[in-house]
TrEMBL record:
Swiss-Prot/TrEMBL keywords: Metal-binding, Zinc
GO molecular function, one term: metal ion binding
Family recorded in the similarity comment: Belongs to the yippee family.
Coiled coil: none
Gene name as annotated: YPEL
Organism in which the protein naturally occurs: Neovison vison
Pfam families: Yippee-Mis18
InterPro entries with a match to the protein in the record: Yippee, Yippee/Mis18/Cereblon, Yippee_fam
Protein name: Protein yippee-like
């Protein structure tokens, strides 16, 4: 029988009529399911939003090992972050973006947004939202990750 036939064939509330579909030996349920005991906590497993391909060299968060970027997306290794050397990437994964703000950096005025690891919430660097000088326009939409917040992972020999 389909669910619609069971619901219309009986004059029972839906939870009682559907209860008999679960098992031929189960008594129909009277009322909704009881709430879970207060002492039981349902915890989410620690998972990343995106996993990068295992066959590529990649960079991961130094604090929680969440995947951040493929080596193929690396544009430049010659950038300076607020805490030391940094790399410029074309694209990244598992990062969140804060609000954009204007900052005067070594190469002039830019609109940037801080980025953080979505897994451990550590600030990793920033995203270039807008460059105000024509020679810096290539940075727009690109990401800076500081070296002290990432590790080389998978396939580095």
């Amino acid at each position: 029988k389909c669910v619609a036939q069971v619901l219309t064939a009986h004059s029972l509330p839906p939870w009682q009529a559907l209860g008999s579909l679960c098992s031929p030996w189960a008594a129909p349920r009277v009322g909704p399911l009881p709430p879970a005991p207060a002492m039981v906590r349902i915890s989410k497993p620690k998972t990343f939003q995106a996993y990068l391909d295992d066959c590529h060299r990649r960079y991961s968060c130094a604090h929680c090992r969440a995947h951040l970027a493929n080596h193929d997306d690396l544009i430049s290794k010659s950038f300076q972050g607020s805490q030391g050397r940094a790399y410029l990437f074309n694209s990244v994964v598992n990062v969140g973006c804060g609000p954009a703000e204007e900052r005067v950096l070594l190469t002039g005025l830019h609109a940037v947004a801080d980025i953080h690891c979505e897994n451990c919430k550590t600030t990793l660097g920033w995203k270039y939202e807008q460059a105000f000088e024509s020679s810096q326009k290539y940075k727009e939409g690109k990401y800076i990750i500081e070296l002290n917040h990432m590790i080389k992972d998978n396939g580095w020999d």
